[in-house]
């Protein structure tokens, strides 16, 4: 039952993040894209820039601080490397972002969090 609740919370956080991005001029290109190296929650484009986005949702704001780590970001970056040719066919700039979502709070958008490329 806990896994089901976590899955539901994650999907809700992703929908909230996508809505927030759209309100800020981003176009959502894909959601929950899986690769052999990992998954990217959202892929979005704005002004010729493509963002590969990890979304984290927690029930308490305090828990968001520990929800993202280097290992998870490395998986997103590895997946983005595979997906880059498909979503950036003209050599567009790309970055890895994180969006943190908690109830009754505005999403927190952490920009360009991975510098491993």
Spell out the blueprint of helices and strands.
Layout: H1 2-23, E1 27-35, E2 38-46, E3 49-57, H2 61-64, H3 70-87, E4 93-101, E5 108-110
Parallel strand pairs: 3-4
Antiparallel strand pairs: 1-2, 2-3, 4-5
Structure in words:
The chain has 117 residues and is of the alpha+beta class. It has a single domain (2-110), classed as Trna Endonuclease, Chain: A, domain 1 (3-Layer(aba) Sandwich), CATH 3.40.1350.10. Helices cover 38% and strands 33% of the residues. It has three helices and five strands; from the N terminus they run αβββααββ. It has helices spanning 2-23, 61-64, 70-87; strands spanning 27-35, 38-46, 49-57, 93-101, 108-110. It has a five-stranded mixed beta sheet with strand order 1-2-3-4-5, with helices on both faces. Strand 4 and strand 5 (108-110) form a beta hairpin. It is globular, with a radius of gyration of 14 Å. The model has no long low-confidence stretch (mean pLDDT 89).
List keywords for this structure.
117 residues, alpha+beta, Trna Endonuclease, Chain: A, domain 1, 5-stranded mixed sheet, 3 helices, 5 strands, globular, nucleic acid binding, Restrct_endonuc-II-like, tRNA_endonuc-like_dom_sf, UPF0102 protein HF685_06530, UPF0102_YraN-like
Topology-level CATH name:
Trna Endonuclease, Chain: A, domain 1
pLDDT below 50 for ≥5 consecutive residues: which ranges?
none
How many helices? The count is: 3
Silhouette: globular
| Whole-angstrom Rg | 14 Å
Helix content: 25-40%
CATH top level is: Alpha Beta
Percent of sequence in beta strands = 25-35%
Mean pLDDT: 89
Structural class: alpha+beta
Number of domains: 1
Instruction: Please give the CATH architecture.
Output: 3-Layer(aba) Sandwich
């Amino acid at each position: 039952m806990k896994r089901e609740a976590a899955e539901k919370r994650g999907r809700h956080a992703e929908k909230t993040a996508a809505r927030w991005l759209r309100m800020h001029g981003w176009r959502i290109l894909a959601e929950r894209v899986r690769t052999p190296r990992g998954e990217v929650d959202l892929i979005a484009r704005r002004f010729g820039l493509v963002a590969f986005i990890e979304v984290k949702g927690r029930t308490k704001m305090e828990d968001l601080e520990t929800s993202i780590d280097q290992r998870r970001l490395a998986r997103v970056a590895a997946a983005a490397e595979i997906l880059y040719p498909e979503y950036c066919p003209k050599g567009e700039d790309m970055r890895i972002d994180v969006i943190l979502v908690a109830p009754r709070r505005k999403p927190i958008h952490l920009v360009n969090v991975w510098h491993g490329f």
